[in-house]
Structure formats: structure tokens, C-alpha cells
Specification:
The protein has 328 residues and is mostly beta strands. It has strands at 21-27, 36-41, 46-50, 62-65, 72-78, 87-92, 97-101, 113-116, 122-128, 137-142, 147-151, 163-166, 173-179, 188-193, 198-204, 210-217, 224-230, 239-244, 249-253, 265-268, 274-280, 289-294, 299-303, 315-318. The strands form 6 sheets. A 4-stranded antiparallel sheet has the order 1-2-3-4, with no helix packed on it.
């Protein structure tokens, strides 16, 4: 029998709304085996770290500046210098840069080191090993230049100069994720283009470049905002799900494993204005479910998966008034 999706409301930890928190990431930043929280604060030009106690509560925040006018829009984590401690990477929309904050042994972070994205207005950051050298690389979605940029990591805390790929005129990409969509053992990139209402796939090669691309529509005026990759129908082929806040929907594309996808399946979210999306098994039935943040209705939606690429109607959980737009 299918397990029911249930969540318990915990006492909210106060994150100051006037700081305009845009993104959240989790990781064990002080090696105490308890998960901690990192938040990018767009209006405050900083990130904040909340160390977890392992019981659903967190300690008071610790602030780290990302620079005056930086407007950090997204945060991600990875061990960039191979010291077995999690570091932080931030997409700084205001200063056109990627900020790297390396972790010290005592649990604190070093001052930010900036990598230029050259007037591109990065809004999204994704950390993944793209070229199978075990060193994390960084990909940004650049709203200002209709492109994505790839920074290859050297494993010592430093990175290559960015290689940039055009995503289309007036595409205004808002999100980028990775996966091997054609089973050639090379990582590919999937990009949500808000301006042109489509998803673009850039296919990776074995020489650290991305060559051909495939494009498919998310529907007229759909405005794709975020996307996630996972195994939604248990066939070992990667699938894609996209949030579209222009028409308040989710769009699911089931992959064939050869760079093509089945026709999309669309799920209405009412008036929710869905933003961020995550994939996970939230009810322990070994089937992938979806979680979505809804800015329009100040809640999150859980859609239980049936294991065949389809999902139940969304079940809503309130997050309070003026809630944020990120889930991880």
C-alpha cells in the first residue's frame, strides 16, 4: 500500500524577511554529523550559516559578506579544495561574479574570493563534477547575457576561466542542472529559459566542451523558472521536471536515454505561482515524489509519485506569509 505524505510543523527559525533570502543549501559545515543551513540574502549582500543541533532546530546565524552591491541570488556547496570540508559558492547577481568562501578547520569561512562572470548577471549556480576528474566544477545561468558559464575546478580551490554557451536570443535562463541524458557517460546540461518558454539541453563531450543542443517547448507563456532531474518512472533513464510560473504548472518530461523525451505531462498548480522544485522519496515507498515552493500561495506542494512517471494531485503545506522561494 502507498504510504501517505505527512509532515510535522516545527517551530520556525526566524530568517529576516527584509534580507530577501533567495536560496538555501544544506550540508554539515562543522563536521559534527548534523546538517546545517546556508542562506543567500539578496538584499543584505551576505550569506548566513545556521548550525544545526540535530533535532530540527538551529543555532543563531553567522554572517559572511559577499560584497557591497553583490545581491547574491543563489548558493551551493562543494569541497572545492579537497580538504574534506564543505565550501560555499554564491552567484552574485549584482557584481557579476561567483563568490567562493572556503571552509577553515575551526568551522568558520574565509573571506570571499570572486570569479568574474563578465557582466552576465548570474542568477543560478550549480556544482557538479562535469569532466570526471573528481574536482567539483561550477555552472551558472546568466540572465543578463542569455547564456550559461562553466568554471572547471582544479581541486585546490581555484577554477578555470569561464567557458560560456549561448542559450538563445531573449532566452533569459533562470536555472541549469546536469545529467547524462543520452547515455554516453558524459554530463549534459539542462537549462530553463524563462524568456523563450523552453528547455535547452547542451550535450557534453569528452574534451570538456558542450556541442550540439536540443530544445523543447514548455508551452506558450509558461515562463519556466526552475527544473530538477531524477528517475521518475524507474526505468534508469533520466527525466526532467520543470516549474512554470507563467501558467502555474509543472511539466514532466520522461527521458528515453537517447537525448529524446516523451511528450510532456502537465500538472496544474492552481494559482500557486510555483518557483523552486525538488525530487525525493518523502513517504518511503521507493517512488520519487515532487516538492514545490509556491510564492503565490505561501506554501509548499507535495506531489506523491506513482512510480510510473505520473503523480497525485498536489497536497499543500503552509509556510506562513511572505514565504521564500527556494527548496533543497
Amino acid at each position: 500500500p502507498k504510504c501517505e505524505l505527512k509532515f510535522k510543523t516545527m517551530v520556525r527559525n526566524i530568517i529576516d524577511y527584509k534580507n530577501d533570502p533567495r536560496s538555501v543549501a544544506i550540508g554539515d559545515f562543522n563536521n559534527d554529523s548534523w546538517l546545517d543551513i546556508a542562506v543567500a540574502n539578496y538584499a543584505a549582500d551576505n550569506i548566513t550559516i545556521y548550525f544545526g543541533y540535530g533535532n530540527g532546530t538551529v543555532a543563531s546565524l553567522v554572517k559572511y559578506s559577499t560584497g557591497s552591491g553583490s545581491a547574491p541570488s543563489m548558493i551551493a556547496v562543494g569541497d572545492f579544495d579537497n580538504d574534506h570540508r564543505l565550501d560555499v559558492a554564491v552567484a552574485n547577481f549584482g557584481t557579476n561574479s561567483v563568490g567562493i568562501l572556503r571552509k577553515f578547520q575551526n568551522g568558520s569561512f574565509a573571506s570571499q574570493t570572486a570569479l568574474s562572470t563578465v557582466s552576465s548577471r548570474p542568477v543560478w549556480i550549480h556544482v557538479i563534477d562535469l569532466n570526471n576528474d573528481t574536482a567539483p566544477d561550477i555552472v551558472t545561468a546568466n540572465h543578463g547575457t542569455h547564456s550559461v558559464s562553466v568554471f572547471y575546478g582544479y581541486g585546490n580551490g581555484s577554477f578555470s576561466r569561464p567557458t560560456t554557451y549561448f542559450t538563445g536570443f531573449d532566452s533569459f535562463p533562470l536555472a541549469v542542472v546536469s545529467g547524462d541524458f543520452n547515455n554516453d557517460k558524459q554530463m549534459d546540461l539542462a537549462i530553463a529559459n524563462y524568456g523563450t518558454n523552453n528547455v535547452v539541453i547542451l550535450f557534453g563531450s569528452d574534451n570538456d566542451t558542450f556541442a550540439k543542443q536540443s530544445t523543447f517547448s514548455t508551452g506558450p507563456d509558461s515562463r519556466p523558472y526552475s527544473l530538477a532531474v531524477g528517475h521518475l518512472n524507474e526505468d534508469a533513464m533520466l527525466d526532467i521536471v520543470v516549474t512554470c510560473n507563467g501558467n502555474n504548472s509543472l511539466v514532466v518530461y520522461l527521458g528515453h536515454g537517447d537525448a529524446t523525451f516523451m511528450s510532456e505531462t502537465t500538472y496544474s498548480m492552481g494559482s500557486a505561482s510555483p518557483y523552486s522544485i525538488g525530487i525525493g522519496d518523502f513517504n518511503n515507498d521507493n517512488r520519487m515524489d515532487l516538492v514545490v515552493t509556491n510564492k503565490g500561495t505561501d506554501n509548499i506542494a507535495l506531489l506523491a509519485g506513482y512510480g510510473n512517471g505520473t503523480f497525485a494531485s498536489p497536497k499543500m503545506y503552509s509556510t506562513g506569509s511572505s514565504s521564500s522561494i527556494s527548496v533543497t
